[in-house]
Structures are given as C-alpha cells and as structure tokens.
Amino acid sequence: MIEGVLGTFTLFQMAFIFIGVFSGIVVGAIPGLTGSMLIALTLPITFHMSALHATTLLVAMYVGSIAGGLITATLLRMPGSPAAVMTTLDGYPLAKSGQPGRALGFGITASFIGSLIAWVALATISEPLSELAVKLTPFDYFALVMMAMALIASVAGGDVIKGLVTGFLGMLVTFPGIDPSGGEIRLTFGSNDLLGGFKLLPVLIGVFAVSQIFADAFDMDARREKVEFSSRGIFMSVRDLKDQAINLVRSSLVGTFIGILPGVGASVGSALAYLFARLGSRTPEKFGKGSEEGIVASETANNATVGGALIPLISLGIPGSVTDAILIGALTIHSLQPGPLLFETNPDIVWNVIGVYFVATFVMFGLMLGLIRLYVSISVIPKSYLLPAIMVFCVVGVYSLNNTMFDVWTMLLFGIVGFLLERAGFNLGPFVIGYVLAKVAEAKLRQGLMFTDGDISPLFLEPLSAGMLLAAFALLVWSLWAERRRRLSSVLRGGGSKP
Amino acid sequence: MKNPLKATSVGIILGLLASPVLADWPEQPIKITIPWKAGAGAVDQMTRQLQKTVSDSEIVDQPITIFNVGGPIPIGLRQAKDHDPDGYNFVVMHTAMMTLQAADKIDFGYKDFEPVARLGQFCQTTSVHKDTGIETLDELLDKAAAEPNTLVHGANLGAINHVYGIMVEDLREGAKFRFVQTGGDAGTFPEFKGGRVQVAGFSAAGATNFALGADGMPDPESPVRLLAYAGSERHRNFSDVPTFHELGYDFQFCVDGWYFAPKGTPNDAIDGFANMVREALNDEGMQSFLSAKAMVGAFQAGDELMDEMDRQWEAIEPIAARAAKK
C-alpha cells in the first residue's frame, strides 16, 4: 500500500497530477464543459501512455473538475458543472454581499475536507462499504430519495406552494423519453430526438447558467456592483472550522455514501447534504441567502462523491458515476479488467488510483487557493465580454456531450424556463432537487416492484426502507411546521415594527 | 502534331472524368458513427481499436474519425441512415438493431442499410447465483418450469440480454424467469451480488470478470456459477463450461459487431471498407484487444454477411417482439 502511494511522488507522476488537476479545475469552472467530457476527450491521448500514467491523469482530472465547478457557481451564479448547482444557491449571495473571498474560501476548504474524508473511506474500508452498498434493495434507495424529496418544500425560500410547483415541474421534466425501467417510449410526441429525454447537463446548464446570462443581459445597463476583493476569510479560521465541524463530517459521509451508490451521482449527493445541513442548522433561514453552511455542505459532499464513486469501481468494477464509466473504459483499453479481481491482478494500479486521489486533493487545494485572486478578477471583466464567451462555451459543451443539436435547443429552452420562473418569483432550488431525484426514485421504485412481482408491502415492512420512509414523513411535517412558524414570527415581527 | 496532342489530352481528361470517383478509395477521411456514448461497451472500443490499428499499420492512408451520438441508439442510428452515401459515412451497430426493430423502437432495420462487414463477436453465458444450489443448466430449466416466474433474471428489458434470457427459457416447455430491469453486465452484477438476482446472461467478458479468480480458475468467493456458454465452441477463458450444443440444445447466441453504410453507397467503398476490416483483423494489436474483451474475430462480408443477418433476424424478431410486450 505504502509503496503504491509513494509511487505517485515521482516527478513524472506529479507532473501528470498537476496537469490533470489544473485542466480539471479550468474545465470544471466553465459552464457547459464538464469533467466527464474532459476525461472522454483525453482518453484517446492516454492510449499512448502506460496504464499507470493514464489512470493518474484521468483521476487527477476528475478531482479537479468537481472542485472547479464552485468558482463560477460562486462568482457568477452559473454552476461550472452540474455537481455545483447547490453551491450557487448560497455561494453567489455571499459573494455578492461583498465577501467573494470568504465564499470561495469556504467552498475550497470544504472541497478539500470532503475529498480527504472520502479518501480515508476509499483507502481503508472500500471493500466492506461496497459489500454494504450492494445489500441495499431498490426500495431502500427509493425511501432514501424520498427523505430528500420531503425537504423540497423547505428550500422554497419561504413559499411552500411555489416550492412544490417548481419541484413538481422539475420532476415532470424527467418523464419524456425512453422510460428507465421498461424501456417504453413515452411522451415524445413522435419526436426521435426526444427519445433520450431532457438530459441532465443541458437542463441544469440551461436553468442556471443560460437563464443567468439572459437575466444579466437584461441588466446590462445597470451599474455594476463593484465587488471589492479582500483576502479576508479565504482561509477558514479555527472557529469557522469548529462551527462547521459537524456539517463537514456529515456532508462528507453523505457524499461518500451517495458516491458509492451506482447511478445516483454528485448532484444528488450535494442536494442531500445541503438539505441535511439546513435541517441541522441553527439558522436555516439563511439558506439560499448566502449561508456558509450551505456552501460547505454542497462542496464537501460533491467532492466526497468522487472518492465514494471510486470505491465500487476498484472493489467491484461497478461504475459509481458517469465519469467512472469512462475510467472503466480507459482501464479496459489498457487491458486491465476492473472488477473484484483488480486488487489481486493489478494492485499497483489500485494503489496508484488511491494514492493519486490523495495527492490530487492537496494539489487541488493549493491550486484553488493560489489562484483565488485570478478567479475573482473574472467578476471584474465587463459582462458584455464575459457573457458571450460563456454562452459559446455552454453551446459547444452541451453540443459535444452527445453531438446532437437537440441538447442545445433543450439548454436554450430551459434557459428561458429558468429565467421566467425566477422573474415570477419562483425559487429554482426545488426544481433541481425534483429533477435530479425523480428519475432515481422512479427507476428504483419500479425496479423494486419488478423484484417483488408487483408487491409493494416490503417497502413499508422492511425495517430499513420503512424507517427511512417514516423519517421522510417526519421531515416533511417538521419542515412545513418550521416554515410556518418562521413565517408567523416574521409577520409578527413585521407587525411589531410598525409605528 | 497539334491536333493529335489535343485529342490525346482531351481523351485523357475524358478518361479521368469517366473513371469511377472512388477508384482509389479512400481519398478523404472515413467517418464512423457510433450511435451511443463514447467509451461505452465493447463495440465502441472495438471501433476505436480499428481506428488505431488502421492508422498504426497504415492499412489505408486516410484517417478514421469517430463520431459518437449519445442518448438512446435510435437517435444516432437514424442520423447515420440518413447520411450522404458518399462512400465515407459508416456506422457501427450490433445485434440490438434487430431487437429495436422488432420492438417497434425504430421503423427501419438492417435492410435499410448497406451491410459492409462483421469484425468480431462476443457470446453470452447463462449463470446462476450459487445460493440457489443449482449446478447445471438442466436443473435451472427444470426449476424454472416447476416454479415459473420465481427465479429472478436480471436484464435490460427489451434489449439483447432480455431476448437472450427468453430464448433460454424457451429451451424448456413451461420454463419462465421473472425478468427485472437491472441493465447490462455492470448493472446486473451488484444485484446479483446482493442476492436479489438469481439468473443472469452475462457476456463472456462479464462472466470472466465476475466468475473467475486472478488465476483464471473459478473464484470460490464469487456468487456467480457459470452453467453454459452460447458460443459454437467452448470459450478459452472458462474451458470447463459446456456449450449449449454439448448439453443437447441447438442454441447459439452471439452479439455481432457490424459495420453498415447508408443505402446507395458505392460498391468500391463498401468493398474497400470490408477489406480494411479484414486486414485489421490480422493485426496483433487487434487480436490482443479482442482477446482482452473475451471477443473473437469473425470476419464476414457480402452475401455471406447478409445471409447471416437474415438468419439472426428470423430467430430474434418474434422473441424481441415478445420481450417488448412483457
């Protein structure tokens, strides 16, 4: 093990890690371009490298790209990658309130710690963890997702009804296309392009980045708020760390665990951690308005999913994420068969992946902090130059995902949808949560029903799923009640301040 | 002197114009569409290996460019069908083309293309979970007939491994598996390991990965027990596993990697591409790739290829239509 980890410290390997993390951060920060795209495009280049160097480069890119997403999410309210969507909800308001350094600093440290805690899990208990993950039944998954769904109303920013409307709208968007369980075609209205449905990247980039471009374009004449850069707050103080300790650990664990589950993904991980953080917060009303806890939860969890997703990859050969699926492709091209045997047949590769993930986490932390001034200068570039450039990246990125124009139209359509929803006073948080969770919920529920031949009773009778469903119900009631109380008290306070 | 010279040059020019455009195929880069996401599946990787082999061994002097169209297969496949038949547009596809057509997911099929060549194939296996106590294919089929709809078979519903599972249950009167959506090999194995799936039709590569130990022998800790292999002869990776033929069933099921061109593509281009594939198969890099993916090189072109497709269509069409209705 130690040999494998130490092996990453050669000059050549370090150069690959550095290049990988740096290019990952850059691509991750650009809305529309994602880490999986970078890795897919780099794949052919790695054909000419040794398997060891290839995995080094690709894993480093993976680490960098997830972390990079927070930069534009925080400074421009445009998530650089879908995993950073939840970060926009609080990162941008905090940055806008004159503390961009603090907003980025919190996100960066959170990314670092999330990544590190997931690494510990990867290096020490990856085998028992993946054994545990395969024990979960589809009904357990479904109940887990329901827990997160129950919290949709609470991220609505005060208006429960509006929150539910946008949440349901998000769910509705997942319906068209080939259904994930039976393979039936539904709601495509005869359109061949719609067979694939509205895909994650075009929808999320549309709703967040493109709608923001539209909104900014409308406000182009408005005086730019000058964001003063202060290095104050870039580093989390000991006190900050102490305040966030529980949040950091909880979000890391949530992220790691969600990462392990195949087909769930970083966006769900950060959404779930965010919801839990809000639930455990003493100041839940700050969420969505620049809460440091919100940034920490989202960034800790989405980075932890990288380590989490590598766990089933190396112990079972099952991809924990889309990026992992490409990594598996890379390994097989180098004649390595990822699977339960990889540990025995190619221990050097496995320990190299673990070692690289560890080193890349530190490189990511250093690069992100070191370049912070550069990032902040992005927000000083006049929007008339910045917006068209970002728009070009969005279009190119989304097109190259599947090489279809339909995805570009999807992105533009959802740009308009997001723009209009916001203008009408709807919060976009519930939309994302509804959208990312509905697909998993449907697929798992229907899969569970196929296993039991249509019998739904195990969902309510098995202790784990029943417990989680009960918790979901309790969360729903509690969040509605807490919202109501908060609203009442603000009405009372508002009334009290009147002369 | 003047006139004959003129006549000769006119003759030469006319000759050039009259000669087939594709006399020296290829004169420009060859584009191969892969109608799904980059890097996914053996047939995508096979095409990337073809690209590499052709360029490394200088089989033709033009590069191959690969164009992945993501999303469900029908989207990219339809695009490829409608491409200009200029001799430089090709598409790679496998047996799923037939299951899609039979299930009415596409309103066209292999007959709406020019079949060009088959490069290689991989065959399916039938496995059970060791906890079932089942040790032979006959025991499995007996149980599926005695207690129909109880043994859970993981599959990607409506797709190849589902059609394969139905064909296996059809080997015994009254045998029925309960098919559950688990996806391909990678999606089915976690469910298998978790004990929720008892029967699976892994590809040869999946079976190698999930059932064998590092020494190439059956792994005692694996939950997978291989019962039968659907190739024409035993697979070298698990040579103790009998074929269906050996067990007395006239049954074979392999997934073919086919190259097609849009209808109307000139014959020179079709022959040129087929020759390129045939030559690539002699290459060592291609051979070691196929072996790493538990695939076998199985070149076919021309009438032989068309006959084989007709044979497969006859076998698959009724079953795939049934799979779609389940």
Could you describe the 3D structure shown?
- The complex is a heterodimer of chains A (499) and B (326).
- In chain A, 73% of the residues lie in helices and 1% in strands.
- Chain A has 499 residues and is mainly alpha-helical.
- In chain A, helix 4 runs antiparallel to helix 12 (292-316) and helix 6 runs antiparallel to helix 15.
- Residues 495-499 of chain A have low confidence and may be disordered.
- Chain B has 11 helices and 11 strands.
- Chain B has a 6-stranded mixed β-sheet, sandwiched between helices.
- In chain B, strand 6 (152-155), helix 6 and strand 7 form a beta-alpha-beta unit.
- Chains A and B meet through helix 3, helix 6, strand 1, helix 13 and helix 19 of A and helix 2, helix 3, strand 7, helix 7 and helix 8 of B.
If strands are numbered along the chain, what order do they take across the biggest sheet of chain B? 2-1-3-10-4-11
Rg from Cα of chain A? 22 Å
- What share of residues of chain A is helical? over 70%
Largest beta sheet of chain A: what is the strand line-up?
Answer: 1-2
Low-confidence stretches of chain B: 14-22
Q: What's the total count of β strands of chain A?
A: 2
Class inferred from helices and paired strands of chain B: alpha/beta
Low-confidence stretches of chain A: 495-499
N→C terminal distance of chain A = 71 Å
Major beta sheet of chain B, specifics?
A: 6 strands, mixed
- What is the arithmetic mean of pLDDT of chain B? 90
**Helical run tally of chain A:** 21
